[in-house]
TrEMBL record:
Keyword vocabulary terms for this entry: Motor protein
One example GO MF annotation: ATP binding
Protein name (database record): Kinesin motor domain-containing protein
UniProt similarity note: Belongs to the TRAFAC class myosin-kinesin ATPase superfamily. Kinesin family.
Organism, as annotated: Pycnococcus provasolii
Residues annotated as domain Kinesin motor: 1-42
Length: 187
């Protein structure tokens, strides 16, 4: 999407394939030559650049995003997303839920401390005691988050406790993320 305008209109794209004659670079040279051969079959035709209506594109992406979010919610209701297996022992379910909640709290804490560190550096300079204190707290929070994340990841490997998302759910989730990124670009 970012390069669309670069290849529109009367643009011309060229590639240079570099090769080396030394024996130690033979594998790289062959790979480069194969790549160049594939590129030689690529043909483009000049098309007059067309103006893009950002408001219309934003509305289109917004509608697609809403439809994908509805689809994602339906998949969650159908049990196709990541979830704790209801047939797992209740104590293991509770432990995993608690650890996921703790991990989420740690993620929020790390994000907040990163923002505070940036603000402290802007206000006090990089070498002040306030910056050092926030940096120390951030380091501790990151270690705590890393520890609880590792625990959650290990718990998810316990047979019968965690049910992973289906391929359909994962694709839909990726589509939602892609559309959100497009909305960010469009403003």
């Amino acid at each position: 999407m970012l390069l669309r305008d670069s290849f529109a209109g009367s643009s011309c794209t060229g590639f240079v394939i570099n090769v080396a004659g030394e024996e130690e670079h033979t594998e790289e040279t062959l790979c480069s030559l194969r790549f160049g051969e594939k590129l030689s079959s690529v043909k483009t035709s000049a098309v007059a650049s067309q103006a893009t209506d950002v408001a219309a594109r934003r509305a289109q992406v917004s509608a697609e995003l809403e439809a994908e979010r509805v689809k994602l919610a339906e998949l969650v209701r159908a049990g196709q997303g990541d979830h704790i297996n209801p047939a797992a022992p209740p104590s293991e379910q509770a432990s995993l839920r608690n650890n996921i909640a703790t991990m989420t709290k740690r993620e929020v804490e790390v994000r907040a401390l990163k923002a505070r560190l940036v603000e402290a550096k802007a206000a006090h300079g990089a070498d002040s005691a306030a910056v050092a204190a926030v940096a120390s707290r951030l380091e501790e929070a990151m270690l705590s988050h890393s520890n609880i994340r590792d625990i959650v990841l290990r718990q998810k490997t316990i047979p019968g406790l965690w049910v992973g998302a289906t391929a359909v759910y994962s694709r839909t989730e990726a589509q939602v993320a892609s559309l959100c990124a497009q909305m960010d670009v469009l403003g």
